[in-house]
């Protein structure tokens, strides 16, 4: 029953230069691996052949998944930020480098762009939020994965929303103990974050 999905919820958006780098990238990945035939049938039948690869993504596939699922994602997912919103190809001058490595280094325009990433994600999630079996934890931390580290999952100072850590909200959902939908206020309101921002030797963030 438990499915935890992380990331790639904002696939349909363009990057800051107006191109859609990530769609092209994943469209080639789906054809390279020949995985289209294994994608969700219900999603495929409601999508045109040219766009069938979109069914690879939670944003499009989720609506057709019948198994109850819990969505865990950061509203400022650093993978989405660094590879979908501001991929290196969209910022050849490196004007976003400081902001990418530290949200405190972002100027007002960049923060406004990041708030757009969050609101796009919340819009994609709206359709799932009201379902009786909904489970969701969308915090406002700069991170990609938060489920595989004890420090972010369930430790005395783990990220929390309304005083609940990820493990507690997943537990409430799994054991049907009541509402299990937590959506954080916008950056920079959350003081419980562990911002986990990967940086490689070239200064670009990795996956
Ligand atoms: C913020 O930085 C971007 C990228 O360098 C720049 O285009 C923009 O004008 C800056 N905005 C402000 C308000 O300083």
Automatic annotation (TrEMBL):
Pfam families, A to Z: PAE
Tagged with keyword Signal: yes
Question: Which GO MF terms does the UniProt record name?
Answer: hydrolase activity
Q: Where in the cell is it found?
A: Secreted, Cell wall
One BP annotation, GO? cell wall organization
Record keywords: Glycoprotein included? no
Identify the InterPro entries for this entry.
PAE/NOTUM (IPR004963)
Signal peptide range: 1-18
Primary subcellular site in the record, as a coarse category: secreted
Similarity comment text for this entry: Belongs to the pectinacetylesterase family.
Protein name, UniProt field: Pectin acetylesterase
List the taxonomic lineage: Eukaryota, Viridiplantae, Streptophyta, Embryophyta, Tracheophyta
